[in-house]
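Notebook B, p. 112. Complex prediction, attempt 2.
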Amino acid sequence: MSDATPRRPARRRMSRAERERQMLDVAEDVFGERGYQATSMDEIAERCGVSKPMLYEYFGSKDGLLVACVGRSKAELLDVTQKAMAGATTPEDILSRGMVAYFEFMDAHSKSFAMLLREPMAASAETIEAVESTRRQQSTLIAGVLAMFAPSAPAGAVEAYTEIIIGASERLAQWRTRRPEVSAQEAARHMTDFCRHGLSPYLPDAGEAGPAPR
Amino acid sequence: MSDATPRRPARRRMSRAERERQMLDVAEDVFGERGYQATSMDEIAERCGVSKPMLYEYFGSKDGLLVACVGRSKAELLDVTQKAMAGATTPEDILSRGMVAYFEFMDAHSKSFAMLLREPMAASAETIEAVESTRRQQSTLIAGVLAMFAPSAPAGAVEAYTEIIIGASERLAQWRTRRPEVSAQEAARHMTDFCRHGLSPYLPDAGEAGPAPR
DNA sequence: TCGCGTAACCTACTTCCGGTAAGTTACCGA
DNA sequence: TCGGTAACTTACCGGAAGTAGGTTACGCGA
């Protein structure tokens, strides 16, 4: 009556690499569902069909697990955005394609990335550093594009503009999680329009075009 | 040898309002120093010269305490930015003064606000909501300005631009914590320049001015 | 096909911290 | 001076991160 099923259907042994990938998949899901704080290592372990010490064997700590998740996505994000920008020629096109790829990546990882943008926090300096490192990676990409197409811009401005673009992109990505009817293309268009001309088309003429004076 | 001092110098009774203010001051400090996660309620209690249950008496939970801190700053931020913008007339001036006030506010609360921007997360939905509420407050302010000076802009764009400005501001504020040599005025100027004309002054002509086509 | 080394895995614990129940002290007004 | 109440405390609970040490099963050579 009791154990007609030996109760060991899903629990099979796996190689290190295989188990590691599974753990990362599960962790990304659970972190995305519950948020970092509310996620317990026991739950991740259980969903993996494995006991808690295995997670510590593989990732050292709860932070370590999150950092590993971030690290995996980081590589993917760079790959996706770089490939998207590769085909373009004009600055507008580069920015536009890059932004579309960025927003589409966020769609694919919406749950877990929304968490990262919303709550990078909780955790250790290491986690923050991992997220910042992802930002730096994207910043480098953007700064390169800016330097290439706007060689006349002062260095300080390039750096500031890079930060502006990063911050704006992340905020727009979060906004889209609350406004799912806004497509990745629309969001990217808002972004490129704003970057291209800023608010000048809508403002009363006060100084016309040309590099900002003073 | 042991207790020549009766060891009760700071520990005095206080009225509810007085104690509450002190707790918020201490909590803002400690959260700013250690980050949310790494801060223990015991430490805040000790620094207040009071026992832990008092904190729970006053704020209900660790989250509640953080939310109260955020709430207090929220009012101050709105006040400061609104007052700064009051004297201006042109859109550029409004934006510029608002941004300077914002960055100066961040300087004054640098530790704790850097934490909020860096790690809004850790905590509950309530905490996130408190931070988002602060953003909404500032968004309303910005959207109002946009609507007033750019009535021709489509509604969808206004909303998106508001998000862009919020995200960009926060990111620039964080950037300044790593680049202390950048003054609030400089950062504000980068922001206003970018908003006014975007990248167009630096880009090769591809379509001139006018509202973004397509 | 038998054994044996090792990599995958588990049970059972400690510690730390958020949160709470129930009791104690000191101020204030009558 | 004395009682009521607001401010405050000690001493605890439960849950989750992290760990020590032992166990199982798979691969592989003889």
